[in-house]
Amino acid sequence: IDDKIINKAKEQNKTIKEITDFYTNAYHAEMAKLGVKRPDIEPKATESLEAMFELIEKLLLSNHAYKTSNGDVYFDTSSDRDYLKLSHRVQDESQKQQRIENFSEKRNSADFALWKSVHDDSVSFESPFGKGRPGWHIECSAMIEKHLAKKGNKFAVDIHGGGADLLFPHHENEAAQTRCATNHTLANYWMHNGFVNIDGEKMSKSLGNSFFLKDALNVYDGEVLRFYLLGTHYRSNFNFNEEDLLNSKKRLDKIYRLKKRLFGLPHKDEKTEFREDLLKALSDDLNISESLALVDEMLTEINEKLDNDPKAKEIKSQALSNLAYLEEVLGFGGQ
Predict the structure, then answer these.
(1) Is the dihedral of CA 332, 189, 162, 52 positive or negative?
(2) CATH architecture observed for domain 43-193
(3) Would the pTM of this model clear 0.85, i.e. be above it?
């Protein structure tokens, strides 16, 4: 339930559902071309309002939230002793005492909205706190609690991901409200991905260098883009340029050349040293550089052995098992 979506709906004279369905469907289509599997559930904020109300009410009852005279509900950051421990930010005394606006009823400058009251004819929803819209952060916590969290678990989810720019304030605020409302921690592991650069420059509308996946998919096969995108560690910034993409495609082609060499041969699922090494590398914070280096070594070694002995059944069997595992774990080589 985002202001930008609401404004776009007004501009195009469409419903919010029409706008969100359009972009959701486009996203699904692009992810499918990249070989990304659909999640089991895809909750929508507009269908999770009751879960948000429940979480806000818990925070109000436990004095971790308060309501202002105009109907807004804020989270009281001073009530959470662990606030800012996720992002490791330091808030000095002047920040703690600062008021954003003279007329503001916020107790602390860092307090964030759980519910924003609406007093005009703009998009709003009825709630126990009055007519309004949910704050950005509460949507995520509420949907996680409703669909993923299990009673008695120390963590609501094992892994929570997002862009590095979301660490603060979004993830910090998510973690705080979940912790205070439920007495369990939001996530066991936090994984933050880097940004996209174009030819060494940060992607931005002002520079006119925005990179859209839909445009790249008109030129390159989805698997080629998948392999290229996977070549950069998720926490690093991704620098898109066509020369690197073409070099990445050559690397992918090596997999298919070996696969063609083994075409039509039966194989059984067997453990190999390559499979163990690949899993070990990926278990180290998804160390993709080491993983792809292992792939290159495996391809070179098997091709050399087959050059020396084209009828080596054991080598062929291991090679087929390795390629099948590569497809299963990293999602390429299956076309």
Answers:
(1) positive
(2) 3-Layer(aba) Sandwich (3.40)
(3) yes
